[in-house]
């Protein structure tokens, strides 16, 4: 629940300035550039390969997705998935700590990695004629990652400093971390991706090594390649470098379903801050397939509701809460996760204006949803958000990295390769009545958790913390 609040919209707008979007009601008539369809293969050892040719520039993206994240940790070792991501840069039998990044840079490329609740990913963007070099490097560290204990201890200090600078020094990040622990009881989404500090303090090199051996197996991973490439050649290269990695069973995952909530949950959180803040989290359905089921239909309607409330400049929340002499908030947000390996939330949040309270912002946010439940939304609003999504579909093709990430994310969720096309088609079908219906059914107290940041005085002499040396992302 970071600034996850516009996640779905950002997926489509990542390569597009809002100023370039057409006005509401405009028709998109220019066809998208011709694109080759992605192809998917499965190696004998269980590794998935997805290839998406895009020959407009002599560049390629290579990504390795491992279907493991913070949700696969156990209590006492929170943060180990993220720590292990850092350790993948610390060497193999044939490469020294830090050498991976130096070699990619020497190829004229850039690289990094990320960890979320659902997945750990590693990526490189390089000239297309250097693709085999990064395939070889990534396959080597996936299969042969190793490092001395002292290297682990040094990198663990980097991660702890990362937690301090990104979470502990940020009162809103702390609020959302605490709120997640209140929202979820059984779901592992209650744990922070970076880990609790006491778990980081107690983490051992063996914790990371065991997590690596357990989850970094071919059947739990996918290689995604996009760019100026030939699928048959990519398949040969991947089979050459990844194919010899021995197959091992993917560990079984037990279901950890969230129990039904009965009544609103509230969190009062105090921290040094300039302004108070309020966040509302509602438990709602998520998209599991593209089949026409009540749950999937509701998930799509919730996506449209999020966009109607806060999908563009001057959307409902902005107009109603942040403008005029009687405005109640300085800023507001709405968002919906749509899909994930764990349960998803619909979130509303805001910063009270001068003289206003978090409770007033909470009431105003809920009133806007209640208004949709009473009065519905207009066809003009629906057309506006749908037009923007279609524009985003066209412009996102400019990003080879974006195409690769979208394919990898779909694989993580068990979705088909053409998820983007199917999603657009299903969103176009959402009606005003469906949006009105979900606004009426999913925003009561029994689905709600509220977090309020109560500001404490800020030390005027405190200096901003410097970014951790060696921190990635």
UniProtKB/TrEMBL annotation:
Segments forming domain Peptidase M16 C-terminal: 203-387
Domain of life assignment: Bacteria
Domain Peptidase M16 N-terminal positions: 55-194
Keywords assigned: Signal
Cofactor dependence: Zn(2+)
One Gene Ontology biological process: proteolysis
InterPro entries: Metalloenz_LuxS/M16, MPP/UQCRC_Complex, Pept_M16_N, Pept_M16_Zn_BS, Peptidase_M16_C
Cleavable signal peptide: 1-26
GO molecular function ontology, one term from the record: metalloendopeptidase activity
Ranges where the record places region Disordered: 454-473
Pfam families with a match to the protein in the record: Peptidase_M16 (PF00675), Peptidase_M16_C (PF05193)
Family: Belongs to the peptidase M16 family.
PANTHER family for the chain: METALLOPROTEASE (PTHR11851), MITOCHONDRIAL-PROCESSING PEPTIDASE SUBUNIT ALPHA (PTHR11851:SF49)
The protein's name in its UniProt record: Insulinase family protein
Organism of provenance: Ramlibacter montanisoli
């Amino acid at each position: 629940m970071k600034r996850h609040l516009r996640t779905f919209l950002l997926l489509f707008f990542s390569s597009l300035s809002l100023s370039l979007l057409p006005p509401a009601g405009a028709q998109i008539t220019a066809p998208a550039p011709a694109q080759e369809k992605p192809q998917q293969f499965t190696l004998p050892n269980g590794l998935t390969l997805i290839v998406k040719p895009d020959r407009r520039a002599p560049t390629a993206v290579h990504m390795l997705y491992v279907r493991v994240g913070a949700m696969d940790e156990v209590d006492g070792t929170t943060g180990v998935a993220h720590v292990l991501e850092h350790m993948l840069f610390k060497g193999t039998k044939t490469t020294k700590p830090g050498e991976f990044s130096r070699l990619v840079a020497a190829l004229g490329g850039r690289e990094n990695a990320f960890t979320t609740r659902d997945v750990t990913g590693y990526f490189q963007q390089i000239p297309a004629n250097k693709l085999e070099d990064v395939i070889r490097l990534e396959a080597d560290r996936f299969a042969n990652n190793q490092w001395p204990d002292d290297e682990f201890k040094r990198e663990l200090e980097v991660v702890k400093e990362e937690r301090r600078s990104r979470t502990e020094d940020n009162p809103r990040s702390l609020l959302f971390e605490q709120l997640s622990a209140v929202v979820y009881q059984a779901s592992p989404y209650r744990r922070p991706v970076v880990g609790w500090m006491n778990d980081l303090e107690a983490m051992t090199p063996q914790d990371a090594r065991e997590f690596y051996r357990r989850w970094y197996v071919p059947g739990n991973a996918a290689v995604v390649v996009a760019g100026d490439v030939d699928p048959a050649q990519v398949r040969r290269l991947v089979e050459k470098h990844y194919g010899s990695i021995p197959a091992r069973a993917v560990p079984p995952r037990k279901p950890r379903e969230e129990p039904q909530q009965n009544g609103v949950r509230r969190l009062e959180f105090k921290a040094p801050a300039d302004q108070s803040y309020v966040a509302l989290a509602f438990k709602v359905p998520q998209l599991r397939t593209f089949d026409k089921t009540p749950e999937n239909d509701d998930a799509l309607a919730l996506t449209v509701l999020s966009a109607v409330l806060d999908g563009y400049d001057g959307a409902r929340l902005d107009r109603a809460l942040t403008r005029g002499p009687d405005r109640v908030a300085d800023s507001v947000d709405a968002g919906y996760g749509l899909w994930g390996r764990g349960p998803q939330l619909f979130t509303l949040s805001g910063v009270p204006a001068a003289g206003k309270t978090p409770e007033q912002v909470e009431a105003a946010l809920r009133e806007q949803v209640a208004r949709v439940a009473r009065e519905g939304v207009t066809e003009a609003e629906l057309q506006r958000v749908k037009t923007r999504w279609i524009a985003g579909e066209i412009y996102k093709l400019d990003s080879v990295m974006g195409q690769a990430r979208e394919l990898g994310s779909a694989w993580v969720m068990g979705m088909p390769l053409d998820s983007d096309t199917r999603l657009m088609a299903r969103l176009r079908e959402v009606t005003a009545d469906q949006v009105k219906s979900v606004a009426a059914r999913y925003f009561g107290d029994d689905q709600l958790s509220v977090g309020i940041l109560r500001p404490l005085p800020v030390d005027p002499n405190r200096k901003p913390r410097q970014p951790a040396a060696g921190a990635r992302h």
